[in-house]
Amino acid sequence: MEEKFDCIIVGAGVAGLAAAMTLARRNMKFLLIEKGEFPGSKNVSGGVLWGSDLAKLVPGYWEEDAGWDRFINHRRLTFMDDQSAFSVDFKSSHFNETPYTGVVVLRSRFDRWLAEKVEEAIAESDFAMDSFIAPNILVEEILMENGTAVGIRTGEEKFYADSVIIAEGVNNLLTRQAGLQDHYVPADHMLTGIKEIIRFDQKVLEDRFQLHGKSGMSNEFVGFATDGIEGGGFLYTNRDTLSVGLVLGLKDLRDKGKAPYDILNTFKAHPVISDMIRGGDVVEYSAHVVSSGDKRVMPEKLYKGGLLICGEAANLLMNAGKAIQGMDYAMRSGILAAETISDAKEKGDFSETAMKRYQTALEESYVMKDINNFQDAVHLLHDPVMTQKVPNLICDFGRKFFSIKNEPTKKARTLLGESVRSHSSYWELMKLGIKGGKAL
Predict the structure, then answer these.
(1) What single-letter DSSP state applies at residue 8?
(2) pTM summary value
(3) Same domain, yes or no, for 20 and 154?
(4) Structural domain ending residue among the three candidates 291, 310, 338
(5) Which domain holds residue 213?
């Protein structure tokens, strides 16, 4: 057999790059394969990378003027009807402290920067001439022998390794080919994310959103944002652009015969959003399929002999109402996968039993603890009462409460009662409150 790598990683997204960085730091010989021209070239997603794992991979990253755009110190959740918006708004200087709790990234730039950091780590390892990041290569097959992964095939070429990490993203072709998922994920549990990048003069953007230095804001939207389709909206402040978009249920889009871009145009025309994006130039439009965060779409097993699945390939994503989390899950799973491979190399054991330690570590991490604990919240966020009736009720109450007229003013409880009767009922809201209390 040809000379082998310790590990072959398929996919140079956040999960694959995190695995590669960990392997390089642990002095492992590996091959990281990316089908794009460079890491990030085919990645159209982006948003907020939460947590502190980036600081572990790249200590002091905040001192560099590269890779990431802004740190988040301003959070906003907005409920919308067709004319109004009612926001829960929080801003704190505590979030100015490093390492930041969240940074806004544009993946085409971030992934390329992180790949450069991996290259630096490779150069400092014992395998500076033997470990590689190989772009422009499409992996067509995971090579299996007696149920154990032994390498990959690309075209007529085969590359061998003691282990393989699949970080191919949400398109689970290799995961299914390896026998860890026996069918496509049903549309019921998948969403499409559509996004525009809107460019501004940097000072205009900073003045409009009250940004200072590299501070930034994340804004999630519920209600009219999706024009009656399951899902929600988002807006993130990049360095001199805005990321504005929607995450929409594929099944609901199909059943109601609506086009994502038409819904995005309706969202952008809302008076609140149109004020935010006024004067900007659209420089990019992209779409990307993502998991809904429903645990039922995850492969039951994320491992086989010599094989591990991480990141979006494992459908590791969740939106429990507080934030959309995916990149942080991908990064942690990539780190855990690489640590499992490193330990297996040390023991000379890449069996299925050895690889199972990855899934155990993932279950013990915050990733699966959150996914398991907040499944009810994921389902609640897709309830039509939550996505349609509640936003309409809140906005109706807001209009009444903040309107000043030359007539006797009604008590707030009276105004709230009127809004409840117009859009829902106390009984329906009580049931939703009980569900919410249990879910959150």
Answers:
(1) E
(2) 0.93
(3) yes
(4) 291
(5) 187-291
pLDDT in tens, the chain (440 residues): 467 999 999 999 999 999 999 999 999 999 999 999 988 877 766 789 999 999 999 999 999 887 899 999 999 999 999 999 999 999 999 999 999 999 999 999 999 999 999 999 999 999 999 999 999 999 999 999 999 999 999 999 999 999 999 999 887 889 988 888 876 666 677 888 899 999 999 999 999 999 999 999 999 999 988 888 888 899 999 999 999 999 998 888 989 999 999 999 999 999 999 999 999 999 999 888 888 778 888 888 999 999 999 999 998 988 777 778 899 999 999 999 999 999 999 999 999 999 999 999 999 999 999 999 888 888 777 778 888 899 999 999 999 999 998 999 999 999 999 999 999 988 888 888 887 777 66
Retrieve residue 166's tokens: 């699949």
The number of distinct structural domains making up the chain is 3
Question: 99, exposed or middle or buried, with CB in 10 Å at 0-12, 13-18, 19+?
Answer: middle
Whether residues 146 and 34 share a domain: the answer is yes
C-beta neighbour count of 229 within 10 angstroms: 21
Report the alpha-carbon distance of residue 430 to residue 440 in Å, rounded: 15
- Token digits of residue 398: 């807001």
